[in-house]
Amino acid sequence: xAFFNNTKEVGYEGDVSVSKPAKMPVLTIxxxxxxxxxxxxxxxxxxxxxxxxxxxxxxxxxxxLLSRGRYDAPAAEVQPNALPAVMKYDTARFxxxxxxxxxxxxxxxxxxxxxxxxxxxxxxxxxxxxxKSSADFCMQGDLPSHPELLDxxxxxxxxxxxxxxxxxxxxxxxxxxxxxxVVTREKQKADPENLWLSRAPRIxxxxxxxxxxxxxxxxxxxRMIGGPSVKPYQPSGLWEMATSGRGILATYKQDHGxxxxxxxxxxxxxxxxxxxxxxxxDASNRDQCEVKRARTNTPLQALIMLNDxxxxxxxxxxxxxxxKTGASPEDMIRECFRxxxxxTPDKREIALLLDYWKSQEAYFxxxxxxxxxxxxxxxxxxxxxxxxxxxxxxxxxxxxxNMDEAITKx
Amino acid sequence: MENxxxxxxxxxxxxxxxxxxxxxxxxxxxxxxxxxxxxxxxPEEDAGFLPGIPHFAPKAKRVIxxxxxxxxxxxxxxxxxPTLTKxxxxxxxxxxxxxxxxxxxxxxxxxxxxxxxxYSFKQHGQSGAWVSELFPHMAKVVDDICIIRSMHTEAxxxxxxxxxxxxxxxxxxxxxxxxxxxxxLGTENKNLxxxxxxxxxGKGNGQGVYSKLWSNGFLDSIHQGVxxxxxxxxxxxxxxxxxxxxxxxxxxLDRVAALNEMELKDFGDPEIATRIQQYEMAYRMxxxxxxxxxxxxxxxxxxxxxxxxxxxxGTYAANCLLARKLSENGVRFVQLYHQGWDGHGNLPGExxxxxxxxxxxxxxxxxxxxxxxxxx
Lengths: 410, 376
Fold this sequence. Notes:
The complex is a heterodimer of chains A (410) and B (376). In chain A, helix 7 (207-218) runs parallel beside helix 11. Chain A has three domains: 67-105, no CATH class; 113-190, no CATH class; 202-410, no CATH class. Chain A is built from 15 helices and six strands. With 410 residues, chain A is mainly alpha-helical. The chains are: A mainly alpha (410), B alpha/beta (376). Chains A and B meet through helix 8, helix 9, helix 10, helix 13 and helix 14 of A and helix 1, helix 9 and helix 10 of B.
C-alpha cells in the first residue's frame, strides 16, 4: 500500500452529480496528443478529455498497517516493498515509487508476472490454467499440471517483447489445441477431467462472445473498434424497478441504428443492474476483479437463445439475406449451418433441418397471418419481400442458434 | 525441487491435505443440512460437538424473506424505548455513542439531541411483546414471530449495510442468503427457480435495490436469484416471440433436442446432455410460471385475507400472495424487497403510509406460514 499512499490528492473532491474528474491533479488530452504520443487511443469525438492522474509527492507520506483493516486504527509503520518471496525489491535498481514497482513487476528476472499472464491466457483457450487456481500461485494454490511447459511459455513470452498476439498464435496453432474434442471411452477413462490434455477443450463461450457469434454469423455485427459503450435491447423496466442510480442511470434509454449491433465488449454496464443477458451467461458485474468466470448451463440461458430479440433479429436478417440469393432450401440451410456452427452439416443434420423446413413451409402457407408477426423482430430494416420464405428459414435458423454446438467452442 | 515434484506426482502435500481437511469440515456441515439427523448422537456427544453445527435436526424447508428496504425505524415498530422518550431533547450521552463514526448526513450537526418514538406502543399476545400502533395486524401474530433487537451491522450507510444483510459482507460479490439456500438444499420443483426475488415500491422516500443483493457470488449462476417482474413477462425472456404458439415451440424444441442428441453421440460430452435437460426445464417454466403468477383464479377468501390490493400486480400485497404461491409450489427461497422506508425528516408521516401498505399482508404471510409449518 505504501506505493500508493504517496499521491498528491487529498480526500474527497468530486461531486457524483456532476460529470467531471473526481480527483485533482488532472491531465487534459486533446487532439494534438492523440495525433502523436497517444495515437493508440480510439476516441470518437474530438473534444478534449480530462482524466485524473496520480502525482507523486516530493516527500514520502508515512504508511501504516491498519489494525483489522480499520482506517482509523494505524499500527506499525511500513515501507514501500514488494513480496520478497517472488523477487527481492532491490532499491538500487527500483526506486521506491510506483514507477519502481512497475519496473519490478515486468523485470525479466521476476518469475511471477509472465507465468501468471501466460497461465491466464492458457485458461481462456483451454478452459483451465496449467495452474488450475489461476488467481492463486501461493501456498493455497494448485501446483502446475505441466510445470516445464509453463516455464517455457513464460520465458519465451517475456523474451519476445511480451507479445500477446504471438503467444495466442502459439497456443491456438499448437497440436494440443488442434486435437479433436471428441471424448472417446478410452480418454474418458484415462483422463476424465482432461487434465493431461488428451483432447481439445470443449467450453461454452463467454457472455460477450455468445452475443458476438449471433451478430457476426447473421451479418449484423458492427465491427467498429473503440468509442463509448452502447445500450442494446434489454427487457424494459429493469433499471426503473431497481431505483438505484440518478441522472443518465435512472432510466434505460436504448440506443438505435448501428449502436445496437456492437460487440458485447461495448455493452454498457450499470453495476447495480448489469445487463441480464450477459449476467445469465456468467459475465462479471465488475464489482470485483474476476480472474476466472464460471461456465454454467441453465434454463435461463435456453430462454435467452430462444427469445432474446437479438437472436430473433439475427435470424430474420440472415434469413432475408439468404432468401434473396434464390438458392435452394438445402443450400440455404447448408450456408446458415456453416456460418453459425462453423462446419458443414452432415447428412442426418441436413435431413432433419430440411424436414423442419418443409413442416414450417406448410404451416406458414396455411397460416399466412402468422408470417408478419413472426418476421417483425428488431429494428434493423430489411424489406423481407419474400415474407413466407423468410419466416420459414428464420425458424430453421433459430433451431441452429439453439444447438449446443452454436455456443460451444470445440 | 525434487521433493515438490514428488508431491506433485502424488498430488498431495501438507498444505493440500490441510486445505482439503478444511473443505471436509464444510461439507460435513453441508451434509447435516441435506441429511437432517446425520449428526444426531447421544446428548453427551452433542455437548462436545463442533461449534456452528446445530444441536437439532434442521426442519425448515423453505424461506420467505420479507425485506423492508430503506431502514424502517426500530423506534416506531418493535423496539419500545420509554427512557428515550423521557430524555427527549437531551444530548446523546457519550456512553452510548462511544466515538462511533458519523455519516455524511449528520457530521455537520453541532449537537445530537435524542428523539423518542412518535407513535405509541402497547404489549400484545402471551409473550407481552411491545408493538407500535402502526402495526395492528403484526401485533395479532406477535406470538408467532421472533423479534431480535440486538441486530446491527458495522456499516453506516444503506448500501454496505444492505449488502452485509444479504451476503454477510459489506463489499458485495459474495453469494446472498438465498443463493446459499439454493446451493445447500437444491430445488423441490424442477419447473421453477429455487431462489425468486419480487420487488415492490412504497410511497415513501426510496433507497435503491440492485441485483447484486441476490447475486450468486462465487457459486454457480444457477443459484442466482431470479427477479420476477409484474408485467406480462414475469421472468426475463420467458415469453415466446410473436407468431410462436406452444405447439410451434414444442416442435422447434424437439428438433433442437434431436440435433443435440446427435452431437452428444458424436462428442460424448456430458455438458450436452445437461443442455438438453435445461431446454426441457425452460419449456416447463414457460407453462408453470404464468400459472403461478395468475392470481385471477384465487378464491375470494384469500383475496379478502390479503386485501383487494393483492390483485394489483406489483403491490406489496400482491407480492406476498405470490410469495405464498411460489413457496407452496416448492420454491426454496422467496425474497420480497419493499422500498420506501428511508424516511429521514418526513419519517413520522411517511412511515404511516408504508405500514398501511405492508402490515396486513406481512401478518397474513406469517400466519399462513406458521400454520403450514405446524401441519408438516
